[in-house]
Specification:
By secondary structure, the protein is of the alpha/beta class. It has two domains: about 5-140, Rossmann fold (3-Layer(aba) Sandwich); about 150-215, Winged helix-like DNA-binding domain superfamily/Winged helix DNA-binding domain (Arc Repressor Mutant, subunit A). It has eleven helices and six strands. A six-stranded parallel beta sheet has the order 2-1-3-4-5-6, with helices on both faces.
Length: about 220
């Protein structure tokens, strides 16, 4: 992908302007639109068909979770959604993942982290910052476990994995992206992506988040 087209959705004009400045400064990223409400984000997604939407959660008219859900169920849209959060509501994280968000990033992340996150979700990777990963795991395994069911411990399923796939699962559980796993294991990015896909298929997991929960429940998390 030579150019990644990005839509910004946040009700704070100053923050949108700052995000636009950061993303437009990258040669391969272009901000094609800005929305101040969830409803506007849905409408602009259908009009502009961006590759990635940087989505706030708390917005007027329609929150970012419902906007994410409506965009992801639209068969005519192939748009990845990166949720930018202040990280003060863990339940939002779980709900947005269920709605189809591709990743999360904290709003106080470094500018280069934002650009890299947009590239990652545009390439089809799920992305969870380590801080967000820890929160999701704490919620899934703590008091919210009954409300947010996830994959149960299954040692037999773990035995299906090759040694390399188990290593990859452990690194996914640490919140590493595919590029970071590739660097850690000295593998090609495409190879890592294949390993992650194999792990999800063998364990019957829906996505990277379920893989993280599964790893922790089976003693593979750190």
């Amino acid at each position: 992908m030579t150019e990644i087209r990005v839509l910004l959705a946040d009700d704070q004009a100053l923050l949108r302007a700052a995000l636009a400045t950061i993303l437009d400064s990258a040669d391969d990223l272009t901000v094609v639109g800005q929305a101040s409400t969830g409803r506007e984000a849905v409408d602009l997604a259908r009009e502009l068909r961006p590759d990635v939407i940087c989505m706030d959660v708390q917005m007027p008219e329609m929150d970012g979770i419902e906007a994410t859900r409506q965009i992801r169920v639209d068969a005519d849209l192939d748009t990845a959604i990166l949720v930018l959060t202040t990280f003060n509501r863990e339940d939002y994280l779980v709900e947005a993942l269920a709605a189809g968000a591709s990743g999360f990033l904290l709003k106080n992340s470094r500018p280069e982290q934002l650009a890299d996150a947009v590239r990652a979700v545009a390439a089809g990777d799920a992305l969870l910052s380590p801080e967000v990963t820890r929160s999701v795991i704490a919620r899934a395994m703590g008091s919210g476990a009954a409300e947010q069911p996830g994959p149960e411990p299954c040692p037999v399923a773990v035995e299906q994995l090759t040694e390399r796939e188990t290593e990859v699962l452990q690194l996914v559980a640490r919140g590493l992206s595919n590029d970071e796993i590739a660097a850690e294991l000295v593998l090609g990015r495409a190879t890592v992506k294949t390993h992650v896909s194999n792990v999800l298929t063998k364990l019957g997991l829906r996505d990277r988040v379920q893989a993280v929960v599964f790893a922790y429940r089976n003693g593979l998390g750190s």
